[in-house]
Amino acid sequence: MRDQRKYFFTVLIVLVGSIFLIKLFAIQVWDDRYGELADSNSVLRITEYPYRGLIYDRNGNLLVYNEPEFDLMVQVNEMQEFDSLTFCSLASLDLPKLRSLFLEMKARKEFLPYKPILFMPKLSAKDVASIEDRLDEFPGFYLQARTTRAYTWPSAANALGYVSEISSEQLASDSARIYKQGDYIGQSGIEAYYESVLRGKRGVRNMWRNAKGVEKGSFKEGKYDTMAVPGINLITSLDIDLQRYGEKLLEGKAGSIVAVEPSTGEILSFISGPSYDPGRLSGKNYSANYKIISSDTNKPLFNRPLMAQYRPGSIFKVAQAMIALEEGVISTDTRFPCDRSIINCHGGHNNVDLRGAITNSCNPYFHAVFRRLLSQGKTGDPFRDSREGLAEWHKLVVTFGFGSPLGIDLPNEKGGLMPSVPYYDRAYRNRPWKFSNIYSIAIGEGENLVVPIQMANFASTVANRGFYYTPHLVKSIGNTGNPLEQFQVKHMVPIDSMNFEVAVDAMESVVTSGTALRANLKDIVVCGKTGSVQNDPNPEHSVFIAFAPKVNPKIAISVYVEYSGMGGRAAATIAGLMIEKYLKGKVSRNYLEDYVLKGDFLD
Amino acid sequence: MRKEDSIVNNIDWISVSIYGALVLLGWFNIFASVYDESVSQSILDIKLNSGRQLLFMGISIVLIVGILVVDMRFFEAVSFLVYGFILFLVLLVPFIGKEVGGNKAWIGIGSFGVQPSEFAKFATALVVARVISTPTFRFDNIRNQAVVFAIILAPLALILLQKDWGTAMVFTVFILVFYREGMSPVLLITGASGVVIFLLTLLVPQQWWLHGAVLSVLALLIIFGKKKFRRIFTLTASALAIMALIESADYVLTKVLKPHHQNRIKALINPDADPLGYGWNVTQSKIAIGSGGFFGKGFLKGTQTKFDFIPEQDTDFIFCTIGEEHGWVGSIMVIGLFCGLFLRLLYLAERQKSKFSRAYLYAVVCILFFHFSVNIGMTIGLFPVIGIPLPFFSYGGSALIGFTILLFIGLKLDSHRGQVLQRI
């Protein structure tokens, strides 16, 4: 009986042996997940960050480039006990900060202990130097190099934009899954608009590594490696000299200067004041500086040329004149008395013709012009006449690019407002309205709103005598020599070029004998129009649009200086200086420059 | 002329061959697990564990020769002496030992350390065989039974003092030897049921399920069985005992066991719950073995066992290297060799005429089988991680030499089975 017990042992041995073989078959042969798991275990995927595209100005000056920057990464399963005090002193941390970094890291959604994760972004050069040598004392930690944006000049911040770590909202909306947590993305300006061109393509290097993360050579001879594709360089249309000069002129003032090359729509300068040094929103101090800059009450991040919607003021009279001529309600010889009972005026003039009205910026004249536009007597009913007249007017005025965003190559462009029939129906809640209710728009002071870039484009359109190319900042993507397709389309304004010539002549008189004498240049014919946008009880916004030379214009410009009084002072002077600087390369009238820099434009 | 038959003719060459094959395979795998492609290394390099293992293999051969040339009665005679001496060393370890990998199980001799607990196994086997083979020994005698249990509990308790749970547990396997030598199976069955119920408690989160199951079985047995008072009483008592065990299992798991032991048991049930915490060893070990596929990645071509993903990859987790580099085919071979050795040793044990030799050989089989089952079981996730070596394979001088002595005393005894017959 007892000898039978030996079979118990035989059975036990065979049973255990068989269980082992079956279980081994299951995990080795049947289940093929383990092979992949093993690869991901022992193959370190090293991201090769692409070089972000560089940004040049129109003359080949480098504006934005890349500088190396180091992130401290960690893979938790590779960590071993380490001397946290030494670590803190190397990384300029203290213990509570170190602890909070760990807690914050573990709380992140993408945290996986066996994957590298960002631990400390953007180490300072000093920290990199001290920690790099002793990294082997801290298994699991390693440095990852990447590049950060650097700027040759502290200029053009609102045109160039800035780059920062992708936000969780952006990451969530990245359906193509291009980005990863910790990636940098253009957040504003050219950096944001041309993000897909600039960013390039990430590469991957697969390296064998052991459990401590030490690299042990290339995985399968680099068969699965991909090269990082550098981003494409951009050549902007900016003239950095002009840009910097404009920034200097606008220093200490709020407003904008936008200069455009009329024949192409290329933006020569794009100045928003006040502004900031773009280098402050790059690299290690991004977060701290962003907090300071974004909470600055002067709003340096507010991109005035695109986003500041002003009433156009008197510069709008040029548009009104051409529309009226085109509609045939006036001719160049039409005269109106300067009847100041309804709208006030300034200067000594009376019963002038169209050119004289523009030269002297006669408000009653354009009140009368707009009355004719809206009261053409086609229906016999003043209310219906006003509706039809306004509809006709609206149809023409938007062809200048007013009333909706132009579509320039920057994000967040505002469209302004050109009131239409439905607009007034809404405003008056379907109660009847007619010319006498809405005449303020005759002189650009009513409900209508424009942004500075639209006014620069308008100056450009007049300079071109009837067409424009949508203003844009990038004239060449890479070496193609061409901007984006939409910037190669010629937009025609359905107004006879003869009528444009009338406007051009009148704008010439404005500078030579009218309200903008400070913009007059000795041997270049400048055509311009002043505007003083009412802000009662505050001083007016000083506004000026201009182009030069009169024949074959090279530059069109709009200048807004907030709360600085008459357009003929601050804005016209700045425009004159900018035109001189661009066309002649230097400024001869230093007394005007001093006048602008002093910034004392009010009486 | 049997007396003049040399040991060479009488020794069981099948067992010796399997032993040799296992040691050699182990040696190659130790090299594979420490091999670093970037540094050209030799398997003989004494700075590597493979080189040191070769040294231990040399020492083993010397000892084998020694075992085979001494008189077989020597082992029976010195068994108590050896047992006492080694237990003394084990007792000394907590005081003079050095700590390696969280366990204080070593006595340093120069740059090498000796782990006395590895030698306690063959010493205990000798004493157990000696006591059981005493002509007056009977398992139904309570005092005799107490003596043999004391013999295995002494080293177990002393090794527990070193907190080396794995090695201590090895000594429980002698119960199987007792069973073969006539102990009532009740103890065996009770013990096995206890373990099963303990594991079930862990697997089933709601304990009332288990209680319900026990009560249902009890009800069925009472309804459909003979309605005798004694039977119903026994059944009810057993059911209550099982339910008490279920309750105590939870208590033991959460209150008695240390956190790292709890974790190892939890890892067995659900390694994915925390693959990098307590499940790390098992997860990594399964990845290594699983990635081997059918034929393996080839000698020295493993990535998991080479790049330190597996802790103790040349000692307790040596089987991972086989699984990864030699695949299922290699695993079959190694498991086949082990099972072949066990079955052969069983055969040898059963052909002994001397009770001492048979009991000893059973002890050899049981100890080796326990290591084999627990070690491979843990690497493939069938058993909690308990750090005991794979016999003949794992790196380690004390383990290799201890197992060699254990096996070859058995083979020596077997080679003299004819003489035993003559003596009687």
Description:
- The complex is a heterodimer of chains A (603) and B (424).
- With 603 residues, chain A is an alpha+beta fold.
- Chain A has two domains: 45-236, Penicillin-binding protein 2a (Domain 2) (Alpha-Beta Complex), CATH 3.90.1310; 240-288 and 300-598, Beta-lactamase (3-Layer(aba) Sandwich), CATH 3.40.710.10.
- The longest helix of chain A has 26 residues, at 5-30.
- Chain A contains 22 helices and 18 strands.
- Helix content of chain B is 69%, strand content 3%.
- Chain B has helices at 7-10, 13-34, 49-69, 73-96, 116-132, 142-161, 165-170, 174-180, 185-203, 207-224, 229-256, 259-269, 280-290, 318-350, 355-379, 397-415, 417-423; strands at 98-100, 103-109, 112-114.
- In chain B, strands 1-2-3 form a three-stranded antiparallel sheet, covered by helices on one side.
- Chain B is globular and about 75 Å long.
- The chains are: A alpha+beta (603), B mainly alpha (424).
- The interface between A and B is large, with 42 and 50 residues.
Total beta strands of chain A? 18
What is the 3D shape of chain A? Answer: elongated
Beta-strand content of chain A: 15-25%
What count of structural domains of chain B? 2
Helix-strand makeup class of chain A:
alpha+beta
**Which whole number gives the mean pLDDT of chain A?**
87
The biggest beta sheet of chain B reads: 3 strands, antiparallel
Topology:
The complex is a heterodimer of chains A (603) and B (424).
Chain A: H1 5-30, H2 33-42, E1 43-48, E2 55-56, E3 62-74, H3 84-90, H4 95-107, E4 117-123, H5 125-132, E5 141-151, H6 157-160, E6 163-165, H7 168-172, E7 184-186, H8 189-193, H9 195-198, E8 203-209, E9 215-218, E10 234-236, H10 240-250, E11 255-261, E12 266-273, H11 286-294, H12 304-307, H13 316-327, H14 354-359, H15 363-374, H16 382-397, H17 421-427, H18 435-438, H19 452-463, E13 467-469, E14 474-477, E15 490-492, H20 497-513, E16 527-535, E17 538-548, E18 555-561, H21 570-584, H22 590-598
Helix pairs in contact in A: 10-21, 13-15, 13-20
Chain B: H1 7-10, H2 13-34, H3 49-69, H4 73-96, E1 98-100, E2 103-109, E3 112-114, H5 116-132, H6 142-161, H7 165-170, H8 174-180, H9 185-203, H10 207-224, H11 229-256, H12 259-269, H13 280-290, H14 318-350, H15 355-379, H16 397-415, H17 417-423
Antiparallel strand pairs in B: 1-2, 2-3
